[in-house]
């Protein structure tokens, strides 16, 4: 997300909010799965964790939306289309995470709370998408996209400015 216009107040606010949400995820998750906590504390922590998790996903979706806006010309067309798909996937995953609240905390599947399985859906989705695009971080044959450590062109608006010079 290095092509975000950092100078806008919205992006700065969302970055700070995302930082705070990500910082509280380990604490809330520990409260959810800790066997030392009573069930009522685990249930309350699971609601807060779900809100926190959904908040991080929706902020990332907003970032993808900002990048994918055509009038800003932050990225080229192919990346813009990819960012729109990412935005849509993140929005769907946010809805799935929020739907986990519909399942009572005391529902178990194989001895594990059902909400925990639902919270795994975004993680598996990210992992599956990453493995589908480039398994083990290696480029596929005929793949023209740059690898993880290769120098990539900057945002489209800067590339166009360089071409004019």
**Which structural class should the secondary elements be placed in?**
mainly alpha
Measured between the Cα atoms of the first and last residue, the distance is: 26 Å
Query: Low-confidence parts lasting 5 or more residues at pLDDT below 50?
Result: none
Side by side, the strands of the main sheet go 1-2
N-to-C series of helices and strands:
HHHEEHH
Major beta-sheet overview: 2 strands, antiparallel
Q: How would you sum up the global shape?
A: elongated
Helical residue percent band = 55-70%
Count every beta strand, where a strand is a DSSP E run of 2 or more residues.
Answer: 2
Multimeric status of the protein: single chain
Describe the protein.
There is one protein chain. The protein has 165 residues and is mainly α. The chain has one domain (9-135). 65% of the residues lie in helices and 2% in strands. It has five helices and two strands. The chain has helices spanning 9-33, 39-68, 77-99, 114-133, 156-164, and strands at 108-109, 112-113. The longest helix is centred in the N-terminal third of the chain and has 30 residues, at 39-68. It starts with 8 loop residues before the first helix and ends with a helix.
């Amino acid at each position: 997300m290095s092509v975000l216009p950092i100078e806008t107040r919205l992006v700065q606010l969302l970055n700070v909010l995302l930082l705070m949400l990500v910082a509280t995820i380990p604490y809330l998750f520990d409260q959810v799965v800790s066997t030392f906590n009573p069930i009522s504390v685990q249930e309350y922590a699971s609601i807060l964790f779900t809100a926190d998790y959904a908040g991080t996903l929706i902020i990332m979706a907003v970032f993808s939306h900002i990048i994918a806006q055509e009038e800003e010309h932050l990225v080229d067309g192919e990346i813009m289309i990819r960012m729109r798909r990412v935005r849509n996937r993140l929005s769907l995953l946010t809805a799935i995470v929020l739907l986990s609240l519909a399942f009572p905390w005391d529902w178990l599947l194989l001895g594990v709370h059902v909400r925990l399985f639902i919270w795994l859906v975004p993680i598996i989705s990210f992992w599956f998408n990453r493995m589908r695009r480039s398994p083990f971080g290696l480029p596929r044959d005929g793949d023209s996209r740059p690898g993880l450590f290769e120098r990539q062109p900057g945002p489209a608006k800067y590339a166009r400015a360089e071409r004019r010079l």
